[in-house]
Automatic annotation (TrEMBL), chains A, B:
Annotated localization: Cytoplasm
Cellular-component GO terms for this entry: cytoplasm
Assembly and binders: Homodimer.
Role: In the presence of manganese, represses expression of mntH and mntS. Up-regulates expression of mntP.
Keywords annotated in UniProt: Activator, Cytoplasm, DNA-binding, Manganese, Repressor, Transcription, Transcription regulation
Sequence similarity: Belongs to the DtxR/MntR family.
Species the sequence originates in: Christiangramia crocea
Name by which UniProt lists this protein: Transcriptional regulator MntR
Domain HTH dtxR-type: 1-64
Length: 218, 218
DNA sequence: TCAATTTTTTAGATTCACCTAAATTATTTT
DNA sequence: AAAATAATTTAGGTGAATCTAAAAAATTGA
């Protein structure tokens, strides 16, 4: 079994690997983990000793197969608990992250799988991210950033890229939520801001916003 | 906030205080925590520095009001999660302890209270132990040991004193469960063993068994 | 290319929660 | 009440996960 800290590092490396295909740098990990580069080097050595990552000095890390499996298991639990909190306990989608960060470390295969069943095998978490199944399989599905849509185009809002409390509360305040249709009414060449329509509301959003919303085109 | 280890010590002291009214000894705590007496002394000092226990060298510990509050909060969470595991996820009562030992340390008042609501404010956990409410209030209710019943007397089985996997599985195997009526058909003076009747079954049980079952007389 | 800068690693400390072995205090027994 | 025994504490050490400061390697750019 892995320590809480090890699991958090594995998860962080997994997430960063999507951006850093050729190896996750020490500094990037330190930034992600809110810690110092020297602490990261220490932990990387431990993970490397356990064959959870492949590491050569000064060359960044990559997850091994075992490391990837462990990371996905933690992510599976995190997302299942998020669904539980929202669907069963009435949490808002901006309140679940912190608690799920704790719940994701509970060690019990039976618990995870029974929870999955209880929730009726959800495919997505409250932020639109895919939930790995018991074998670690999951697919993101084809989605694009809202910012990629041109004037007049539309799609269904299916996920958020940033799931910070601040961003989610901004979306709530402006009536933007997953599953609804978005149409681009106008797009400003100068700053890439958009006027979008969701249900009855017309909302003006900055480029920052449109690059953090995932859309599925119809 | 308290560390995982601190919470476990507080819980252990709370439980032991029922037997050791004049202060919990270092050795008793070491036994309960499956650790060495010297480690216990270390931790007691830390808890004492935080005013969670009252401690004078060589005199055992007692929980302070703050310590009691913290211990009860952990116990509340433990028992609520046990109810969740049995009622919602289909765990058997002998499978819940280990997982609840982990879940009891999750820190989120909202989670605890929403879980309580979701479970419809249960008063007892699957082993018949009372669940403290959000203010830490709970009552054990009047219950006696089955061993205290005399021949011909009867009552409802309302709880187990030992909730080890072994004992619970013994009860399952013999069809003994909470909520059912028990009648003492015979009681052996020599070894205190009993012949009891529960529903249609007549079961011969040792004194060890009858001193670990709580009964409510009618 | 080689000097400056940035990134990463090493060295040495710190805290928590544990350990063993030895010393001290309390309790029992004779 | 002194000696033997038991309980508890102290002293010193360990590993995990962090830190700061300094050294070493890699990268950048003049």
């Amino acid at each position: 079994m892995f320590s809480l800290s090890e699991e958090n590092y594995l998860k962080a490396i997994f997430h960063l690997e999507t951006s850093y295909k050729s190896g996750v740098s020490t500094n990037a990990l330190a930034e992600e983990m809110q810690t110092k580069a020297s602490s990261v080097t220490d932990m990387i050595k431990r993970l490397s000793d356990k064959d959870l990552v492949n590491y050569k000095k000064y060359q960044g890390v990559k997850l091994s197969e075992a490391g990837k499996k462990a990371a996905i298991e933690v992510i599976r639990k995190h997302r299942l608990w998020e669904v539980f909190l929202v669907e069963k306990l009435g949490f808002n989608w901006d309140e679940v992250h912190e608690v799920a960060e704790q719940l994701e470390h509970i060690k019990s295969e039976k618990l995870t799988n029974e929870l999955d069943k209880f929730l009726e095998y959800p495919k997505k978490d409250p932020h639109g991210d895919p939930i790995p199944d018991a074998n670690g399989k999951f697919t993101v599905g084809d989605r694009i950033l809202l910012s990629a849509l041109r004037k007049g185009e539309s799609g269904i809002c299916v996920g958020v890229k940033d799931s910070s409390v601040e961003f989610l509360q901004y979306l709530d305040k402006n009536g933007i939520s997953l599953g609804k249709e978005i149409r681009v009414l106008e797009k400003e060449d100068f700053d890439q801001s958009m006027l979008i329509k969701m249900e009855k509301n017309e909302i003006r959003i900055s480029h920052q916003i449109s690059t953090n919303l995932f859309i599925k085109t119809l």
